[in-house]
Each structure stands twice: as C-alpha cells, then as structure tokens.
Amino acid sequence: MSTQNLSIVLVHGGFVDGSGWQAVHKRLAGKGYEVIVVQNPTLSLDDDVGVTRRAIATAKHPVVLVGHSYGGVVISEAGNDPKVKSLAYIAAFAPDAGESVETLIANPPPGAPVPPIVPSADGFLSLDRDQFHASFAADLDEDTARFMADSQVPWGVAALAGKVSFPAWKSKPATYLVATEDKMIPPPAQQMMAARAGAKIVEAKGSHSIYVSQPDATVLAIEEAASLVELVD
Predict the structure, then answer these.
(1) What is the pLDDT of residue 232?
(2) What does the alpha-carbon distance between residue 96 and residue 147 come to, in Å, rounded to a whole number?
(3) What is the pLDDT of residues 159-188, one digit of tens each?
(4) Model pLDDT, residue 2
(5) Count of CB atoms within 10 A of residue 88's CB?
(6) What is the DSSP string of 95-141?
(7) Domain ranges of the chain
(8) Could you give the CA distance from residue 139 to residue 222 in angstroms, rounded to a whole number?
C-alpha cells in the first residue's frame, strides 16, 4: 500500500502533549502520509480513547495507530476501531486485557530506576521537574528537557488506572520500538510486552523521549507497522 493511501495517527503519553511528535510528523508528512496528531487530555483512559477515536474517524485512509508510553494503553483500546490496520508502540505500555499502567508498574524488577512521580492532592501526577531531564529525556539537550519539564501536562490518576478491555494487538499486527536507555519503562519490560503482543521488535539507543530524540528510528518503526498493512489487505 502506498504512503498516499495510509494515515498515521500519533498518540502521546503522560506528562506531555502532542507537540513532541513534531520531528516525526515532518518526516512522515514528507513521505506522503496523512499524519494526525492526537491531543489527549490524559484525564481518564475512557476520555483519551474517545478523543483518539474521533481523530481516527477524521482520517482519510486506513490507519496506522502509534502510541508512546501511556499512549500505548490508549492505542491498545482505540485500535479495535475497524479503520485501524496496524499498531506501532514507541517505548510504550502494551497491556493485556484487564491491565493498566498501574498494574504494569506495580512490581518493578530489582534495581530498576524509580520514576520521580509527584502526586497531587487532587488526583493528578507530575514528574519532579529537577529530575525530569535524567529520568524522561536524558538524551535531549538541557534546554529542550527543561521546556518539557516546565510545560508538563498533569496526568490523571484515573488514566493511570484505566484498564484495557480487549487489546487490539490480539487481532492486528504491531511493531514495537524498544528504547534501550529508558529510565521510565525498563527495557526488559518493553521487551516482554512486545514479545507478548507478537510485535516486530526494533531497538534503538535512546531515552524514554526516543520519539523526540530519535525521530528517524521512530519513523522506521512506524513504517514497519505500515508495511504490515500490506500483509493484511
């Protein structure tokens, strides 16, 4: 299937918004894809799935649905839309039925870095701004990491706890980009989720912000997912 006949829908994760996809968007649009960037409020999984489905509905072509971090939970649920033909997980959670970010992070492996999450009294999470660079964006320059830290989007506890009903990866092909230097989602956990989902695994050296720091590697993983659409059409 040619690039002119596919739409790419990009779903961001927690603590950030869709602007981090800018370099990926530029590369994909330059290749002829229709590219849609979702702006999820990250208040609850149900809300985010609804917003993502509305974005899918606007796509002109069959969709490759892409999620980073918590966005992987969103695409696992929203990806059941019949318009979605394949999935791409970018250093993302890929939950099974009944799982959420909350359950997936409940038992970290010994020695795994602990994300510097700061809860608020009213049910929202943020990352400690002074530790954001090292934990979330270690391979980005200081100014970019500081801007991301200072422009954080509060992440609702309800989104963290939102459980997937039936993961789209059980019925649709997927790729998974493992960020080998990730300090938010341990790379072994990424490998486990990717293998469980039957995803084609691509690895690249990068932080949790690999979609920002390594746009070429990210586009490669997305185009691998796009190539899978040909196999199922």
Answers:
(1) 57
(2) 34
(3) 999 999 999 999 999 999 999 999 999 999
(4) 60
(5) 32
(6) --TT--HHHHTSSPPTT-----EEE-TTSEEEE-TTTHHHHH-TTS-
(7) 3-232
(8) 21
CATH 3.40.50.1820 describes domain 3-232: yes
Q: Which residues of 121-135 are buried (b: 16+ CB within 10 A; e: fewer)?
A: eeebbbbeeeebbeb
Q: Determine the Cα–Cα distance for residues 176 and 222; give it in Å rounded to an integer.
A: 9
Tokens of 210: 């690999």
Three-state DSSP at 17 gives coil
Report d(CA 129, CA 4) in Å as an integer: 41
CA separation for the pair 94, 51 (Å, rounded)? 19
Q: Which of 101, 103, 74, 99 is nearest to 89 (CA)?
A: 74
Name, in order, each residue with C-beta under 8 angstroms of 204's C-beta and a sequence gap of 6 or more: 177, 178, 179, 180, 210, 214, 217
Residue 92, Cβ density class (10 Å: 0-12 exposed, 13-18 middle, ≥19 buried): buried
Is a pLDDT exceeding 60 seen at residue 121? Answer: yes
